[in-house]
Amino acid sequence: MPTLIRSLLGATALTAIAWSAAAQQTNITIATVNNGDMVRMQRLSDHFTQLHPEITVDWVILEENVLRQNVTTDIATGGGQYDVITIGQYEVPFWAERGWLMSLDDLGEEYDVDDLLPAIRSGLSVDGTLYASPFYGESSMVMYRTDLMEAAGLDMPDEPTWEFIREAAAAMTDTANGVYGICLRGKPGWGENMAFLTAMANSFGARWFDEDWEPQFDTEAWANTLNFYMDLLTNYGPPGAANNGFNENLALFQTGHCGMWIDATVAASFVTNPEDSEVAETVGFALAPDNGLGRRGNWLWTWSLAIPSSSDAPEAAREFIAWATGPAYLTLVAETDGWANVPPGTRQSLYDNPAYLEAAPFAEMTLRSMEVADPQNPTVDPVPYVGIQFVAIPEFQGIGTQVGQIFAAALAGHTSVEEALEQAQELTTEEMEAAGYL
Amino acid sequence: MARAISTPRKVTLTAVAWIIGLLIFFPILWTILTSFKPEAQAIADPPMFLSFDWTLENYAVVQERSDYLRYLMNSVFLSIGSTVLGLLIAVPAAWSMAFVPARRTKDVLMWMLSTKMMPPVGVLVPIYLIFRDTGLLDSRVGLTVVLMLINLPIIIWMLYTYFREIPGEILEAARMDGAGLKEEILYVLTPMAVPGIASTILLNIILAWNEAFWTLNLTAANAAPLTAFIASYSSPEGLFYAKLSAASIMAIAPILIMGWFSQKQLVRGLTFGAVK
Q: What is the spatial distance between Cα B211 and Cα B226, in angstroms, rounded to a whole number?
């Protein structure tokens, strides 16, 4: 009998210990996209759980649009499925204003908030409070083939104009050999062709809305923008450009079919990687073009980590964000995968690091591109909104995608530029009236 | 007497059938081939058909990055669970409408079908809120119920069609022999409708397996099935086609194999009535 009692007591004690250990464990669910840097973060998250054995991590990785829909539904309804979410600069301003995001002002000393690039920090803050921590940032720039440029007898300046881009595109186009002077986004979507066109329009003096939220597609500046874009792509672009997004153009550029490609700075690491790119040794970089109006056609985007207000493990989530977006994470990636693979575009210290500058030949131009981007003052004339390649209002996703479809139809030759602009003006006016802005 | 078909005609028809079959199968074949290519060759222009560097790396990467078995088990649970649950409701419903029709039976059937005409996104928020309040978000039980509900009209319609072809006199005879309702459905009706029920089960499993809207919207880390597994390999920035293809093949392989082995029953059930 004493043996039985001892056994029972022992089992009870063990159960209690196990129960107590389980009770101390906090589980966080992280929702993110399938980009190379995020996949690396998932792989390296064992380092985090070793530092914080009391936290376990579940990952939900989804395609960008699916993730955006899931996260939006969850956060708007207070579903509480996620503890850490991956969002862009577009969502932060109005999600924070609605109280859907927790403040991230107290991520600890090691986080070094003052090291964040000012433009990035500003884009993720509302009234001076940080609501999302940048994981990687990007602008856009010109990537070009140095060999083709040389053969064309031209020299790409660091700060090209749109006219130079047209001249270079014409000189490099060799359709007989499948080389097209320029590759640009044509696939419809607010984050696809409209990201490029909105940023380009800024440099042409165009804007989405005036200060009274009146749509501006009926202005000469928009006509100039769209005509120039059509001219470039129809004369010097690849066939079927209306179907090309980032990945399609990446494939074209890497296989030697594009003389120039104006797109996200994050592409620089892909096109200079000899394992994937046939033109890795002959790629040069320049700032996005301008028209001498004081604005360049480059954007600013950040994939960042935030905590929904509905999270039931905000402290553990905060620990994770401080780890994944802190300076120590950059060093960890450099140790495991090399400096060239460190998430770019968030911290000044990275661009002061000689090891990084040596490993990433595109680093300097990436930083310059980000420095000239100003989401608070994106256009030549004043606007009531924040955002360079988007308008930070909830309605923009829908309007931007529909206008993108109209412009893609014009690029495919189904409508004229004039008709496309008329349709865009009409549609945007209708939507803005329905949303109560007008 | 069967009509004689000339040899040239037979050859032509066979060739046409093969061409159509290959055209339909080509996307799957291309996905299989892409899954064995290195990422750079997956986007090669012109496309490479067979002369690429064959590799199993994509499968290894997918296996390493994702817990495939967990997604697979969720898919199995959801598709079989929703089918069984659906049959429990659909068999009695179809029986009553086929053998004891009321004045409004046809209207009821049409009403049930009409629920399939509404875009699912129209009820996403209400269902999401119900799930949130009942703690069913990211749970296999909740998702099983939703998948059962969205496929229920199809199950009832299919079973109703099969049951209608069973002569009512057979059931009457069973009743005269003293069979109760339970015996009538279990021992008389069900055995006669086996081909129909089998094809209904198979079709429902396939529909539930492939359902992507609800499975992506109502799950996170725990109940996510293979549709979420595939969705995790698409990327807006970077090359992903080869890994996405490998993930797709791993996701469709089980249902493809099941469909292959049961194609005879599936085709028979879909093309013939219960007693033909």
A: 10
Per-residue confidence (pLDDT) for residue B271, from 0 to 100: 66
Cβ pair B125:A73 closer than 8 A: yes
In angstroms, the separation between the Cα of residue A125 and the nearest Cα of chain B is 25
DSSP secondary structure of chain B: -PPP--HHHHHHHHHHHHHHHHHHHHHHHHHHHHHTS-HHHHT-SSPPSS-S---SHHHHHHHHHS-HHHHHHHHHHHHHHHHHHHHHHHHHHHHHHHHS--TTHHHHHHHHHHGGGS-GGGGHHHHHHHHHHHT-TT-HHHHHHHHHHHHHHHHHHHHHHHHHTS-HHHHHHHHHTT--HHHIIIIIIHHHTHHHHHHHHHHHHHHHHH--HHHHHS-SSSS--HHHHHHTT--SSS--HHHHHHHHHHHHHHHHHHHHHTHHHHHHHHHS-TT-
| Cα end-to-end span (Å), chain B | 20
Let me know: does A174 contact A256? Beta carbons within 8 Å: no
Per-residue pLDDT reduced to its tens digit, A56-90? 999 999 888 888 889 999 998 989 999 999 999 89
From 1.10.10.10, 1.10.3720.10, 3.20.20.100, 1.20.272.10, which CATH number describes the B66-271 domain? 1.10.3720.10
For residues A202 and A162, what is the distance between their CA atoms, to the nearest angstrom? 12
Q: Give the H or E element holding residue A84.
A: strand A84-87
pTM above 0.80, yes or no: yes
A276 to chain B: which residues are within 8 Å by CB? Answer: 39-40, 239
Tell me the two tokens of residue A415. Answer: 């409508």
Domains and CATH numbers, chain A: 26-131+301-359 (3.40.190.10), 141-299+376-434 (3.40.190.10)
Question: What ipTM does the predicted assembly reach?
Answer: 0.80
For A32-45, the pLDDT digits (tens) are: 998 888 989 999 99
Of the candidates B45, B137, B235, the beta carbon closest to that of A79 is on: B137
Rg (CA), chain A: 24
